[in-house]
Amino acid sequence: MEFFDVAWRLLAVLVAFLTLPLLVGQTEHKVMAHMQGRVGPMYAGGFHGWAQLVADGVKFAQKEDVVPAAADRRVFQLAPAVALVPYLLVLIAIPIAPNGVVGQVVDAGIFFVLAVLGVGVLGQVMGGWASANKYSLLGGMRTAAQLLAYELPLLLAAASVAMAAGTLSLPGMLESWQWWWLPWQLIGAFVFFTAGIAELHRPPFDAPLAPEEIIFGPLTEYGGLRFALFMLAEYAGIVVISALTAVLFLGGWHGPFADQLGWLWMLLKTAALCFLVIWMRVAWPRLRADQIQRFAWTCLVPLALFQIALTGVVKVVFL
Amino acid sequence: MSGLVLLGAERGFLSPTGVEITFLLVGLVTLGGAVLAVTSRQLVHAALWLVVALGGIAVLYLLLTAEFIAWVQVLIYVGSVVVLLLFGLMLTKAPIGPSPDADSGNRWVALAVALATAATLVTVVVDAFRTAWIELDVPQGTTEIVGRSLFRHWVLPFEALSLLLLAALVGAIVLSRRKKERR
Amino acid sequence: MGLPGSGLAKGLAVTLRTMTRRSVTAHYPDVQPELPARSRGVIGLFEENCTVCMLCARECPDWCIYIDSHKETLPAAAPGGRERSRNVLDRFAIDFSLCMYCGICIEVCPFDALFWSPEFEYAETDIRDLTHERDKLREWMWTVPEPPPLDDAAEEPKEIAAARKAADKLAAAQAAAAESASGESASGESAAGEGGGDA
């Protein structure tokens, strides 16, 4: 019985991992197109190009597996897996509905999630180095620098919620969540979401990829299925960061009729945040690498520290 | 902690459990990763083997049900220290393929120091715990337990460590500022 | 640019507003584009008007018009008259891989034998197939749209102006004739107006 329970949960997580990123990708195709006055893909699958990403996947799978002659073969081939698997693992720990609807309850959930997310960036750094391409190397260095800069505010903002809830477990945080945490943790939410986007290298923090200056950063030499894995990692990352922000700061499954419709609230909040991620990509220009660093150290870190101080004061004085 | 350590006099090392076998295997992987990290002639490979070694240690913590420590290990070492290391390597010198200057002249001294450290640690740990046995069915290293023991019994070392880190931070700032003035 | 971040907000607002509006994408293969009259697609040939004067071929900057012809002699219309010779078109081809769509040939044609057609789907897989012969050019002739109506304040077309002038003159002459010979009511000449321009 217990075995089937675990297997069922893991299967559900796997299905979510394989569908939600594609859903986000397709939404990005369409939303971005309409924000630019276009219509986006229209043919694949018949109805408004709904199967475009499936078609892309088929195309990627057919491509030749190319490894540059000068590249470090094994590291080059391993990098996409290192980039992708962490997001799958993270998805296991994210609760989507009350009463233990979660892949696996992890005691130090928030630590688990942030730790594993950090490993994902390692894959990009590996790919950047192993490609034997100077643009890839530049991109890899920017990736590493960006990770180091944004890991801190990400952790601090998450720590603020953990302080407020008095637990590190994600379902536990949601149990004690109240609506007024929303304004209370507002700064933390901003810091967390921004730092999360920066870790994913999504615009406006996509200097590590920056197609207009360094081709495609660490992914320059990748093609075919390995490139597809990197892309999947990026969109899985959007899902994960949005879901985490929803859980930590927007109350996850909290909402009217949470007992029955908790999962819907969670999905809606996640979807809204995913939309925001896409929206920012369309609306805003890219920050320079040095601006990204300055923003992290002079803006996000102090804000996160202020949020922690605020959380502490409110927690001690009013609760 | 002492209350959680049972005397395992009646238990033997024969007929090991699954966890123990896994522990041993992961330990071997960790050791292998560490040895390769030291002996590899390719700088970045060495750093990546270090990831294997550090990750292996995290898995060992997990097997001992020390969940919190395990994730902190991954977060700090794999997520940050190794990335910092790789960043430093890429900034300075990270050729693809073996680098001839990756070999150190004092490798025998290093080996001696390493062996001596290992011997000391093993002796001390074995001597301290002997046949003490941890019951793994009850979680031993959850956040709550770690936090309690850290802030009840080990507050002073903790604070001393943070002071050390602060000093290092200030030192780094001072060093980087002085360089600018000289320019 | 008062508040910090107002630029960012403006970017978000503009993109959101654009998203709620209809896209401007032309769904071309599914929906044919609505081309304006006077679109320069291809050049159609109205053979009946062509006199093989060769002006178009000579004026063409790219030398992309090929014309072959021969002379035919027509028997005299009236007995004892002179025989007439006439040019007969054998080949009229335009190489659209050379044509730069300047429209000079159409401008210079004195007999209105060449027209702009808005037809544009004539891609070929071989560059040699882009030389289109008279039958194809004639086919395109039937896709030539009616000339668009003139603007309200535009000058009258020359043909109509000339016809009107002639008609006015005739009417004035008739009126004068009627006045001078008011008694005699006979005037057998028909006062049908002269036809003006040709198509």
From TrEMBL, chain A:
Give the EC number(s) under which this enzyme is classified.
7.1.1.-
Q: Which domain of life is it from?
A: Bacteria
Per the UniProt record, the source organism is: Streptomyces durbertensis
Protein name per the record: NADH-quinone oxidoreductase subunit H
| Gene coding for it | nuoH
The portions of this protein that span the membrane are 6-25, 78-97, 109-131, 152-174, 180-198, 227-251, 263-283, 295-318
Q: Where in the cell is it found?
A: Cell membrane; Membrane
Q: Which reaction does it catalyse?
A: a quinone + NADH + 5 H(+)(in) = a quinol + NAD(+) + 4 H(+)(out)
Q: Main subcellular localization, coarse class?
A: membrane
Q: What does this protein do?
A: NDH-1 shuttles electrons from NADH, via FMN and iron-sulfur (Fe-S) centers, to quinones in the respiratory chain. The immediate electron acceptor for the enzyme in this species is believed to be ubiquinone. Couples the redox reaction to proton translocation (for every two electrons transferred, four hydrogen ions are translocated across the cytoplasmic membrane), and thus conserves the redox energy in a proton gradient. This subunit may bind ubiquinone.
Similarity remark: Belongs to the complex I subunit 1 family.
Stored InterPro entries? NADH_UbQ_OxRdtase_su1/FPO
Q: How does it sit in the membrane?
A: Multi-pass membrane protein
Q: Describe, as the record does, how this protein assembles with itself and its partners.
A: NDH-1 is composed of 14 different subunits. Subunits NuoA, H, J, K, L, M, N constitute the membrane sector of the complex.
Pfam families for the chain: NADHdh (PF00146)
Keywords for this entry? Cell membrane, Membrane, NAD, Quinone, Translocase, Transmembrane, Transmembrane helix, Ubiquinone
Q: Does the keyword Lipid biosynthesis apply?
A: no
UniProtKB/TrEMBL annotation, chain B:
Q: Using the UniProt record, give the first listed, main subcellular location.
A: membrane
Task: Give yes or no: UniProt keyword Ribonucleoprotein.
Answer: no
Q: Which reaction is recorded as catalysed by this protein?
A: a quinone + NADH + 5 H(+)(in) = a quinol + NAD(+) + 4 H(+)(out)
Keyword list, A-Z: Cell membrane, Membrane, NAD, Quinone, Transmembrane, Transmembrane helix
Subcellular location, record wording: Cell membrane
Q: Which Gene3D superfamilies match?
A: NADH-ubiquinone/plastoquinone oxidoreductase chain 6, subunit NuoJ (1.20.120.1200)
- Asked if the keyword Transmembrane belongs to this entry, the reply reads yes
Q: How does it sit in the membrane?
A: Multi-pass membrane protein
* Membrane-spanning intervals of the chain: 21-39, 46-64, 70-96, 108-134, 154-175
Q: What is its EC number?
A: 7.1.1.-
Protein family membership: Belongs to the complex I subunit 6 family.
Function statement: NDH-1 shuttles electrons from NADH, via FMN and iron-sulfur (Fe-S) centers, to quinones in the respiratory chain. Couples the redox reaction to proton translocation (for every two electrons transferred, four hydrogen ions are translocated across the cytoplasmic membrane), and thus conserves the redox energy in a proton gradient.
Write the protein's name: NADH-quinone oxidoreductase subunit J
Q: What is the lineage of its organism?
A: Bacteria, Bacillati, Actinomycetota, Actinomycetes, Kitasatosporales
Automatic annotation (TrEMBL), chain C:
* Chief place of localization: membrane
E.C. numbers: 7.1.1.-
Q: Where in the cell is it found?
A: Cell membrane
Does the UniProt entry include the keyword Transferase?
A: no
Bound how, and how many: what does the cofactor note say? Answer: Binds 2 [4Fe-4S] clusters per subunit.
Compositional bias per record (Low complexity), positions renumbered to this chain: 174-192
Substrates-to-products reaction catalysed: a quinone + NADH + 5 H(+)(in) = a quinol + NAD(+) + 4 H(+)(out)
List the InterPro entries.
Answer: 4Fe4S_Fe-S-bd (IPR017896), 4Fe4S_Fe_S_CS (IPR017900), NADH_quinone_OxRdtase_chainI (IPR010226)
What positions does the entry give for [4Fe-4S] cluster 2 binding? 60, 99, 102, 105
Its membrane topology is listed as: Peripheral membrane protein
The positions annotated for binding [4Fe-4S] cluster 1 are 50, 53, 56, 109
Q: Which cofactor does it need?
A: [4Fe-4S] cluster
4Fe-4S ferredoxin-type domain spans which residues? 41-70, 90-119
Q: List UniProt keywords, sorted A-Z.
A: 4Fe-4S, Cell membrane, Iron, Iron-sulfur, Membrane, Metal-binding, NAD, Quinone, Repeat, Translocase, Ubiquinone
Q: Where is this region: Disordered?
A: 174-199
What PROSITE patterns does the record point to? Answer: 4FE4S_FER_1 (PS00198), 4FE4S_FER_2 (PS51379)
Task: Provide the family line.
Answer: Belongs to the complex I 23 kDa subunit family.
How the protein assembles, per its UniProt entry? NDH-1 is composed of 14 different subunits. Subunits NuoA, H, J, K, L, M, N constitute the membrane sector of the complex.
Query: Known HAMAP family for this protein?
Result: NDH1_NuoI (MF_01351)
The free-text function statement in the UniProt record for this protein reads: NDH-1 shuttles electrons from NADH, via FMN and iron-sulfur (Fe-S) centers, to quinones in the respiratory chain. The immediate electron acceptor for the enzyme in this species is believed to be ubiquinone. Couples the redox reaction to proton translocation (for every two electrons transferred, four hydrogen ions are translocated across the cytoplasmic membrane), and thus conserves the redox energy in a proton gradient.
Name it: NADH-quinone oxidoreductase subunit I
Gene name? Answer: nuoI
